[in-house]
Every structure is written in C-alpha cells, then in structure tokens.
Automatic annotation (TrEMBL):
PROSITE patterns: ZF_MYND_2
Coiled-coil residue spans: none
Keywords tagged on the record: Metal-binding, Zinc, Zinc-finger
MF (Gene Ontology): zinc ion binding
Organism: Boothiomyces macroporosus
The keyword Ribosomal protein is assigned to this record: no
Limits of the MYND-type domain: 10-47
Protein name: MYND-type domain-containing protein
Keyword Metal-binding (UniProt): yes
Amino acid sequence: MDFDSYTHSCAVCEATENLRLCTECQQCCYCSKDCLKKDHTNHQKYCASFKKFKTLADLFQNDERYKSILIQHSTMPIGQIELNGRRLVQFDFSRPSDLDNMINPDFLMAGGQVDVKIRCALLNEEEDKQSQWYIAMAYTKYYDLEKEAAVAFTLKVDDGFLVKPFVIPLKPE
C-alpha cells in the first residue's frame, strides 16, 4: 500500500493495522467501513480539496507552464540568505475558489488573477516544530535538491488549515 500521506493511522480510532486510503483523495486512512462511515460527514468537507491539491501537484510536474512557476520560486533567493539547503515553496489559498482557479490552466493563461500567497523559506527543524511547515518538512525530508522541489499547498478552512506537502520533480531522471 502506497501512503501518499504523513498519516499512518485510522482517522477515527487511530488504529495502525488493516488501513485503507480514501479512494477519492488518497489522504485519509480508515481501518474499517464502520470508521469510514463515522467520519464520512467530516471527511466530505475536505476530500475534494485534497483531490485538488493532487491535481495541482500533477500540473506542476507535467505542465511546463506550471513547472516554470515552481522553478522560479524554488530557485529565487530568500532575502539575503544564500540557499544551499532544503527549502519549501508554500502556496497558501485563502478560499476554495482560488484553488479552483489555480488548477484551471485556461484561466491562468488568459491572465486570470489567483489570490494566492507564495512563500519560500529555508526549512529549520528546531524552529518549525509547532507549525504546518514542520509537517511538510517531515514529509519532504529527503529529496534531490538538484532535481526536485519541496512544495506544500495550504487552504484555509473553518477550523484551521488543510496542508498537503509534495516532492515534485523539476528535471527528468
């Protein structure tokens, strides 16, 4: 079973055996149909957004127009810091409609504006333990700095943020 997630326990009871991923978003794990049913209402609020994060990651990997955006942000200097180490490019979406627009190449190529904050930062394990960056950093701990970029997509929701990190290839193998 391939877990494309930093969660390796049931979303309801925290069991770690016999886990199955949600077939739609491939993000949440459940140990049984009963746990899946118990979490259905809660999970439905987020499932579609996780699927959109995956769609956006695929666009950054496979569409040269998107890839150029990622390359630009993954190689630019951050302030006066010389970047020789790991860093994260984070795309912060404040509304679901901004995420929808970002995954629409026609909208972007027609000059549409997406309200997204793009932040780049060095990853510092000691300073980031209490942040969403720590989750992304843990997930993207090992990647080839020359060929890949660590990316996280965040979406503001009623009770906090959804965060999904990815490692995206920038150059062919």
